Amino acid sequence: MDIKKSVVLREGIEIEISRKKMKNLRLTIYPPEGKVKLSVPYRIDPEIVDQFILSKMAWIKGKRRKYENRVIGEPKKYKTGEIHPLLGSDYQLTVVETNGKQRIEIKDDNVILMFVRPDSSIENRYKLMMEFQRIALKEILPTFIDKWGVLLAVKVSEFNVKKMKTKWGTCNIAKKRIWINLELVKYPVECIEYIVVHEMIHLLERYHNKRFYKLMDDFYPGWKDVKKRLAAHGISNENNN
Ligand SMILES: [Zn+2]
Q1: Ligand 1 centroid – CA 135 distance (Å)
Q2: What's the CATH fold of domain 134-231?
Q3: Ligand 1 centroid vs 200 CA: distance in angstroms?
């Protein structure tokens, strides 16, 4: 199909316009950043396209604000008293000054102890937290990968945890490699398991087709409820993975 793309800037917002063989204009805002794409049939006049965009600006802005709030939320400062979700529970951060090794430890009563230098920067604390979360998520993944490897009779040769903006997970079918979004560490284990199952089912079926969802239904019947909990975050796995 012949597609012509261009980008226009309206009120500081980039709008990607694709000319396609289609019947009606289609405007879509994509999470998580609120990217705006407009598909336009060839026959429609550029002036009409401009008018259409103008008439939709309020809607576009509203949608983008919604995504912004969801994804970014309150920026963390890594100070004592701050709440950090971990595996579906809220933990309260306690910052402890140390000249020893900088590290994070979990205490009973849902407390995260962060040992840092007295003058440590937010970036330093952020990095420490990311590393802690990465290890925490990497630790629990093998349980699910092993369990579902047996149940689905598939083999994952490599897995890793990545920071991803638009997907909860990805599966490289040829290499039998799955990547899981670091963000998932904040969610209950059933959410993490659901994404692992989703990606591993791709080893049986590449596409999000009927067969794919039949496999999901058969092997992980509650997946739709789990998906809803994740959907509130604005990231989906249905985009292209
Ligand atoms: Zn998928």
Answers
A1: 24
A2: Zincin-like (3.30.2010)
A3: 9
> Mind giving me the DSSP string for the chain?
---EEEEEEETTEEEEEEEES-SS-EEEEETTTTEEEEEEETTS-HHHHHHHHHHHHHHHHHHHHHHHHHHH-SPP---TT-EEEETTEEEEEEEEE-SS--EEEEETTTEEEEEE-TT--HHHHHHHHHHHHHHHHHHHHHHHHHHHHHHHT----EEEEE--SS-SEEEETTTTEEEEEGGGGGS-HHHHHHHHHHHHHTTT-SSSSHHHHHHHHHH-TTHHHHHHHHHTTT--STTT-
Tens digits of per-residue pLDDT, 202-227? 999 999 999 999 999 999 999 999 99
Q: How far is the CA of 96 from the centre of ligand 1 (A)?
A: 41
Distance 237 CA to ligand 1 centre (A): 5
What is the distance in A from the centroid of ligand 1 to the CA of 216? Answer: 11
Q: Where are the domains of the chain?
A: 4-72, 83-132, 134-231
- The whole-model pTM stands at 0.68
